[in-house]
Specification:
Helix content is 37%, strand content 0%. By secondary structure, the protein is an all-alpha fold. This is DNA polymerase epsilon subunit 4 isoform X2.
Length: 101
C-alpha cells in the first residue's frame, strides 16, 4: 500500500481572486456492502426500458430515477402516517394516502 502524501488535512484551493474556494461537499464514507439506493436498479432499468418513448437511459439517469422514487415513497408514507396519528390510529389505511379515487 502506498503512503499518503501530505499532512492528511484537507487543503483549500484558492479561487481566481486569491480567496479560498468554498469546500466541495464530499460523499459520505460508505461501509463496505452499503447501498446507495434502496430500490433495485435492475428493476428500475427494466421499468424505464418498458417505456416505448425511451431509447437510451444511462446508469446515472437510472440511479436518479430510483432515488426520486425513494423520496416520493418516503414523503407519501410520512404524510400518511401523520394522517393516521391525527386520527389516533397506529395502522395506516387507504384514506390516509389522500384522495386517490
Amino acid at each position: 500500500m502506498a503512503a499518503a502524501v501530505g499532512s492528511g488535512a484537507p487543503r483549500e484551493e484558492e479561487g481566481p481572486g486569491g480567496d479560498a474556494a468554498a469546500p466541495q461537499p464530499q460523499a459520505p464514507t460508505s461501509v463496505p456492502g452499503a447501498r446507495l439506493s434502496r430500490l433495485p436498479l435492475a428493476r428500475v432499468k427494466a421499468l424505464v426500458k418498458a417505456d416505448p418513448d425511451v431509447t437510451l437511459a444511462g446508469q446515472e439517469a437510472i440511479f436518479i430515477l430510483a432515488r426520486a422514487a425513494e423520496l416520493f415513497v418516503e414523503t407519501i408514507a410520512k404524510d400518511a402516517y401523520c394522517c393516521a396519528q391525527q386520527g389516533k390510529r397506529k395502522t395506516l389505511q387507504r384514506r390516509d394516502l389522500g384522495t386517490l379515487d
